[in-house]
Write a structure and sequence with these properties.
The complex is a heterodimer of chains A (293) and B (436). Chain A is mostly helical. Chain A has one domain: Orthogonal Bundle (MetI-like fold), CATH 1.10.3720. Helix content of chain A is 72%, strand content 2%. Chain A contains 13 helices and 2 strands, in the order H-E-E-H-H-H-H-H-H-H-H-H-H-H-H. With 436 residues, chain B is α/β, with parallel strands linked by helices. In chain B, strands 1, 2, 3, 4, 5 and 11 form a 6-stranded mixed β-sheet that branches. In chain B, strands 8-7-9-6-10 form a 5-stranded mixed β-sheet, sandwiched between helices. In chain B, helix 5 (104-111) crosses helix 14 and helix 9 packs across helix 11 (227-241). Chain B is globular. Chain B starts with a helix and ends with a helix. Classes of the chains: A mainly alpha (293), B alpha/beta (436). The A-B interface holds A 42-49, 51, 60, 64, 66, 130-133, 150-152, 238-243, 254-255, 257-261, 263-264 and B 65, 68-69, 72, 75-76, 93, 96-100, 185, 247-250, 253, 256-257, 260, 262, 391, 393-394, 397, 400-402, 404-405, 407-408, 410, 423, 426-427, 430-431, 433-436. Chain A: Its main location: membrane. Chain A: The complex is composed of two ATP-binding proteins (UgpC), two transmembrane proteins (UgpA and UgpE) and a solute-binding protein (UgpB).
């Protein structure tokens, strides 16, 4: 007899997925649809009048040199944040995994930064690097290095990357540690008995077995770098100097909430939507193939 | 259970005693916190205690930008407050929103309460009036830039602490001496665009933007790349290069450095007075903002920064009456005089200024009247009345970026200001299109 995993009732399955669909519709499709709709208009801030401009908002955006440059800034920023946050977290997780005494304390301390809100993380780093009163800036000046991220775009980028990555390291650390602990000890021990060095064990056994975690974190970190780093940038550089730290999301905010230009802001949201869609497809089609589950 | 009954009886009694429950509620959204928030709450409770027809409920909605956004969002949802505090750069946005705001002169006229516009300081209200001189919003907290001097630093550099610093040329000489004496921060500033471009233009009676700085129409274009402005920024660029002018950030970051005693001179809002007075462990003085002596007609008058109170459309006539009564109360000279003395903001009426003078406040706190004298010395011209530009908050951001290019030596003053004008004009055209 054929065994089919289907519901007898035609409506029950729909009823069961309804809550999830509703949530997705209300919090994703509806706002996304609104953004697409609004991107074709130039409204005044109070919504008193609005004009249809078709693709005018997109033309305006892509005609702007600073908007085009913002793509490059975003790419540099996201790659740096993702790579540094993941590498540091993996390194720390491997170390914490090997600690025998007091491992609980280490782990707790390493997870702490995750509880810090992005804006507060930004302020903390800002204090340390304040060109006049910051302790790190002062220390650097003792070595003859002049720190002023208010004027130097490279330094500003380094600072926002460091602050953003620092905040995300804890999250990555948690997942890497869990991933490491899920790897069967017997496999590693067998390799150790065969005389494989730690580095060799790491690259041939641990790292491949960790790949599902790594892939998951890659996706999460890219999303984080794209969307959640807003608070850090807002508190530290406000996108400056000379737009060198204006990532796409920050520009959406600046145009929408500082400039009250909702048409441009909506158009940028649509561009972001498409961009993140493409990125996700790329990640799942090309990178996930290398993941061993 | 007994307790509940007791509480119920008590509440009923209270309701009977206080007719406040029958009073009309006036919602007032503002952007103050900390000490300013406390002073504002004090004014509100004084008003509430002074009469029984209206109850003003003041709510802080975050910083200026957040408060404006909260007001806009609330209007879209039909839940707008009666009064919204909007910073000066949001003026054009509010003014263009016909149908969302109710001009103050209308509110006052309908209320039948006495309202004499000439009692207010023209230089303060000018920013918030139409070209016909009718008041659109009530100035609340207004300040203007002045020069703060660290007298101890001047003495240490071998200068006379009472030396003449009225012109930028003389300031230049002082900076040379400060630099030569090893000062790490001869001069710094807060709010660079506001002080060194917007006020600079008004002070030298040159336009910052065409169409009377935007008062006469939405088709205005930036004119901040004129000769006076270029020369000023060029000079500051050179000073930055020589280590005589230190750039500390877009907002008032320089304040902390100055108050710590590390800087010689500091251009900042007159409202920074309370902070400097509290924290400075050195002898300081307030001087008028310096000017370029070779420019004809300089010094004209400086313009204000700060915020004003806008009345939102769509409320009941009873509420508008309450708003008018509250505004009347805020404009009374003892309230204004106290506000002026507590905060360093300008008094909005001449009577409040006279009252403060009579109380001997200026003798005890020398320099606190500099700002008002600087504003009222001459009748404002079309160039010095104020600025009314759409998307101005964002245009300031562009100006900040371009100026940063000058301070780090990657752009000349002319290049930076030309570029700021081109980029700012783009935003002005967007604003014009949205409000057509």
């Amino acid at each position: 007899m054929e065994k089919r995993v289907v519901f007898d009732n035609r409506w029950l399955p729909y009823l069961l997925v309804a809550p999830q669909l509703l949530v997705t519709f209300v919090f994703f499709f509806w706002p996304a649809g609104q953004a697409i709709y609004q991107s074709a208009f130039i409204p005044d801030p109070f919504g008193l009048k609005t004009q249809f401009v078709g693709f005018g908002n997109f033309e305006y955006l892509f005609g702007n040199r600073f908007y085009r440059e913002s793509f490059f800034t975003t790419a540099v920023f996201s790659v740096l944040v993702t790579v540094s946050a993941m590498c540091f977290a993996l390194w720390l997780a491997v170390l914490a995994d090997r600690v025998i005494k007091g491992s609980g304390t280490y782990r707790t301390l390493l997870i702490w930064p995750y509880a810090v809100a992005p804006a507060i993380a930004g302020v903390l780093w800002l204090f340390m690097f304040n060109p006049f009163t910051g302790i790190v800036a002062w220390s650097l000046s003792q070595f003859g290095y002049d720190w002023n991220h208010n004027l130097d775009g490279g330094q500003a980028m380094a600072l926002v990357v460091a602050a953003s990555a620092w905040k995300q390291i804890s999250y990555n650390f948690l997942f890497f540690l869990a991933g490491l602990q899920a790897i069967p000890k017997s496999v590693i021990e067998a390799a150790a008995i065969d005389g494989a060095s730690f580095a060799r064990r790491f690259w041939t056994i641990i790292f491949p077995l960790l790949s599902p975690t790594t892939f998951f974190l890659l996706v999460v970190n890219v999303i984080y770098a794209f969307f959640d780093t807003f608070g850090v940038i807002h508190t530290i550089t406000q996108g400056g100097p000379q737009q060198s730290t204006t990532i796409l999301v920050y520009k959406v905010f600046a145009d929408g909430f500082v400039g009250q230009d909702l048409g441009s802001s909506a158009a940028q949201s649509v561009v972001l939507l498409v961009l993140v869609g493409i990125l996700t497809v790329v990640q799942f089609r090309f990178i996930e193939r290398r993941v061993h589950y | 259970m007994k307790k509940f009954i007791a509480a119920g009886v008590f509440a009923a009694l209270m309701a009977g005693v206080a007719p406040a429950t029958a009073a009309t509620q006036i919602d007032f959204w503002h952007a103050f916190s900390g000490r300013l928030g406390e002073l504002l709450d004090e004014q509100v409770s004084k008003f509430n205690a002074s009469q029984s027809d209206y109850v003003v409920v003041a709510t802080s909605k975050g910083n200026y930008s957040e408060t404006l956004n909260a007001g806009i969002a609330a209007f879209r949802a039909g839940e707008q407050p009666d009064i919204l505090q909007v910073f000066e750069v949001g003026t054009a946005t509010m003014m263009a929103a016909k149908g969302a705001i109710k001009p103050v002169y209308e509110v006052m006229a309908e209320s039948g309460l006495p309202f004499d516009q000439s009692a207010y300081l023209a230089a303060v209200t000018g920013y918030y009036t139409t070209t016909d001189g009718e008041m659109l919003s009530l100035p609340y907290n207004s300040s203007t830039p002045v020069l703060y001097v660290n007298k101890d630093a001047l003495t240490a550099a071998g200068l006379d602490p009472e030396m003449d610093l009225s012109t930028w040329d003389k300031v230049g000489t002082a900076l040379d001496a400060l630099k030569a004496s090893g000062s790490k921060c001869p001069m710094t500033t807060a709010w660079q665009s506001w002080v060194h471009l917007e006020n600079l233009s008004a002070y030298h009676n040159v336009p910052f933007a065409t169409k009377d700085n935007g008062f006469a129409g939405l088709d205005t274009e930036l004119a901040l790349n004129g000769d006076v402005q270029v020369k000023h920024i060029e000079t500051f660029g050179q000073w930055a290069k020589d280590g005589k002018f230190i750039y500390s950030g877009r907002r008032n970051e320089g304040g902390a450095t100055f108050r710590a005693g590390e800087c010689g001179l500091f251009t900042e809002s007159s409202a920074g007075y309370a902070g400097v007075k509290n924290e400075a462990t050195f002898d300081f003085a307030i001087r008028p903002l310096p000017y370029w002596s070779e420019v004809d007609g300089a010094p004209q008058n400086t313009i204000i920064g700060g915020a004003s109170l806008w009345v939102m459309e769509g409320q009941t006539p009873e509420e508008y009456k309450g708003v008018a009564a509250f505004f009347n109360f805020l404009s009374s000279s003892d309230i204004q005089a106290k506000w002026h003395q507590d905060t360093g903001y300008l008094p909005i009426t001449m009577a409040a200024y006279e009252a403060t003078k009579a109380s001997g406040f200026y003798d005890e706190n020398p320099g606190t009247d500099i700002a008002i004298i600087q504003m009222t010395g001459k009748a404002p011209t079309a160039n010095s009345k104020g600025l009314r530009l759409g998307s101005f908050d964002q245009i300031r951001g562009i100006i900040d970026e371009e100026l940063e290019g000058v301070w780090n030596g990657s752009k000349t003053a002319k290049e930076a200001l030309d570029s700021a004008a081109v980029r700012g004009d783009e935003l002005l055209r967007r604003f014009e299109q949205a409000n057509r």
